[in-house]
Amino acid sequence: MKTLKIIGKRFKIVTDAKMEDHGQCDSAKHVITLQGGMTKALLLDTLIHEITHAVDYEMNLDMTERQVHGVGSGLAAVFFDNPKFIDYLYTIIKGE
Ligand SMILES: [Zn+2]
Fold this sequence. Notes:
CATH class: Alpha Beta
CATH architecture: 2-Layer Sandwich
Helix content: 40-55%
CATH topology: Zincin-like
Bound molecules: zinc ion
Shape: globular
Number of domains: 1
Strand order of the largest sheet: 1-2-4-3
Radius of gyration: 14 Å
Distance between the termini: 23 Å
Strand content: 15-25%
Structural class: alpha+beta
């Protein structure tokens, strides 16, 4: 995906093979940057982590890094352990 709409804001999703961190969320510029070459599990964890940062910013939650990490990793684990859950969510969203 090249963009994600998060709480009404269109975030650009870019990959940077040279970045040192796994991910970064620039909430002001609406850009989520992901490190290139991560494993599937780490990519999922990092993407949901950075989305959580964006939600934190847009909803003015003032979450700590520890809280973002816990929510991000927890949700990523649920998605990773239940691949059919995504299909189920899709049917709910599409009203099927
Ligand atoms: Zn973080």
